[in-house]
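Entry:
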Amino acid sequence: MNFVLERHHSVDSTNALALARASAGCDAGLVVVAAEQTAGRGRRTNAWFSPPGGLWFTVVLRPARLEGLSLIAGLAVGRALVDVDWCLHWPNDLYCGARKLGGILVETRLVGERVDFALVGIGLNVNNANFPEGLAATSLAQEVGRPFDLDVVLETVLDSLGEIVGDWETRGLKPFLEEIAALCPMVGRAVRYRVGDRWFDAVVDAVGEDGGLVLASGEKLLSVDQIDLVG
């Protein structure tokens, strides 16, 4: 995949700008990058703290499939990281221990049953050090003990993303499931999850080919408002 970078000093949201570009018919591979976001977004309309020092960008894709895309993007980002002990917090976050390192926001538009485009928003704390009180976050610089060149990290992540997305588009999520399960601390563990205002307890058996969590009860979770490990 050939990536074309569109760089900005400050935007409200790279996903919002990428949405405008995709809606206007841009090619797959456009990458909207900003030094900072003033209204960065996470899942469920959550705000994403994204000041200078991190990587904030959105990639426009036009894939034939969608299943497991947030996990694939998270895997691609994680594979690009050096000397960092990271894990995939289903369905879309990267953690180092109990602290969030990065997150993925996938937004899509369908035309009938066909995927028109998918926006893969990626936020990665790179050289950030000062986080809002109460936010359990970390950065590459804090984990490794040195600053990083943002352009080098971006290039490495995009190389990884291009390789993995191409394989995923051809073969689906199945070839990646073993690696994803090994990186997901929820597999084989008890979790508590929230849907709306109701909480549920469950044990996770596996990650399914559609990207959902397969529970010991036989049920499958495709989307939740919050999910946490128990104990």
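The helical segments are 14-23, 69-80, 140-144, 150-171, 177-183.
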